[in-house]
Amino acid sequence: MKKFLLLTALFGALFLSACKDEEEAKDPGTFAITFDNMALINNVQQQLSLTTAGNTDYPYTNEMGQQFNITLLRYYISAIELDGPNGEHFHDHMEATAAGAKGYYLVDESKPASQEILLTDVPAGTYNKITFTVGVDSSGIVDGAAGGNLDPATCNMFWNWNSGYIAVKFEGQSPVSNGGVGGTETIAGTDPNGMAYHVGGWKNIPGGVFVYNNKRLSYTFDTNAKVESKLEPELHMVFDVQKLFGGHHAIDFTGNHNVHKPADGVDVANNLEHAFAYDHIHQ
Amino acid sequence: MAPVIGATFSPFTMKKTLIISALALVSVVIGCKKDETDKGPSYEFRKPENFPEPTYTFDNNPVTEAGFKLGKKLFFDPILSVDNTVSCNNCHNQSLAFADLPLHAFSKGVMERQGIRNAPQLVNLAFMKEFFWDGGVTHLDFVPLNAIEAEFEMDEEIENVIAKLNNHAEYPALFKAAFGTDEINTPLMLHALSQFTNLMVSNNSPYDKYLRGEVVLTAQELEGLRLFEQKCQSCHSGILFTDESYRNNGIDSVFTDIGRARITSFSGDIGKFRVPSLRNVGITRPYMHNAKFATLEAVLDHYSDGIIESPSLDPSLENGIPMTAEEKAAIITFLKTLTDKDFTQDERFFKG
User: I want to staple A124 with a disulfide (CB 3.0 to 4.6 A). Which of A26, A106, A231, B262 is the partner?
Assistant: First the structure.
């Protein structure tokens, strides 16, 4: 009898401590990310407004003081990771099959819903850093044709001749551009002020001479984001379109304004880390 | 089959022969039919033992009979082109190892538009790392996009192709049978075409049969093989007869078509093109990306005496490849042992 009681007590203690552990571990939650495409005008951040070809209003200015407007802005965000100060780590699930694509987000200024990304099953904890790839790296290519955001027919981001995905597609007009762009969705070749910056190139082969223009970028938050099942933290990232044409390398619209191959997009790609920025968190 | 039966029964009177022939034919036909339902041709992808591992990602797109036949229907269907006139088969003819007709130096697209390069044969694609003369495409699935959307080929938008297929009387059911889905989308269409092209394995040429000890080669063919190993194999290497590199083989010094540099944007690659596989080379004339040479004799004359210098010329060709007329003849005799008639007559690829 004595022995039995002792054992029961022991098991009970074990059981209780196990329960306690489980209570401490919080259920995973969601983490929302909004990409706000903006421009800084008179030191005030303003939401972008897209226009159509032919409009001669030029609300934006690049680093060289050249005015421009925007008819199309679209980019891929993929392979998102979150990290926290206590070793928290989350890696978004990636999949590229005929049935669809997971972990490849296509942010399109003309589609507000595409600017909001909802990560699910994020382990509970605090997070203060995000890392993502602008573009689609080899993981979206090497297994062949995929659907969803990677469907070559519907994404309008696929290069057939040098097969791979455009990372950032910008089309617009500038009074200083001399037009004559080709292979565009919104700007005709006859548009005297058209511009096209189709920035891509994913072939990252050691010893090769390919141009790799996808960028892996990391940003830390000034406040921690707390994730658990009942919370809905939302991170706002800013994409400043004017910095796409400056920061690392000032882009001159009178020069190379018709970008359709990896080598021509290097300077714009190098500006990406300046164009994106952490803005704020809603807890 | 009928003439063989006729010959067997030739001692009989004419009438009897005919009746018996007819009977025999019927039974053979029935026999064949029964055989096919029992076994039938295989639609499984099989790697020949002496071939490298395939590059194709079969895990997410295994070949099935329904998928292969759907891919075949697409391959022969001009629905892929803007005005429903041009199919893949227009430039890729099975009797020529899926190369273009010798008449067409460059591929011929919709509205008689002329292409910019000679359409290559389609052989052993499942083993290739890159595709097209400049190697711009790195996965077989993405190959048809180039042909469908190029202005001078089919000039059609993939979105339209998918819409046409979804509205078609037969395709939705065929996609359902092949992939179990109600909606046709781009990756599934591309997967079907890849299933068809992945089975284009050529490994039954007389040379392959010689390697397997099934046939013997003539003394001249063997001499040609020896010379080939000595003079050609450094580029046309391995069982696929290509090292899949890009080289300037001295056919030009001014390059309107910059070749590999179009993909790499590297000035050192200007004028370099893919080293093509030499399998079935005896039936894929004309030769080179720009169809410069009409015959194999002209090709070998080029390598021995016609190399044109330019900055990116392949170092191995700086002095040409010395060959006597007799040696060239032997090499050509050998090259013709790479013609795979089992492949060019493989009924699985027939349109019907």
Answer: A26
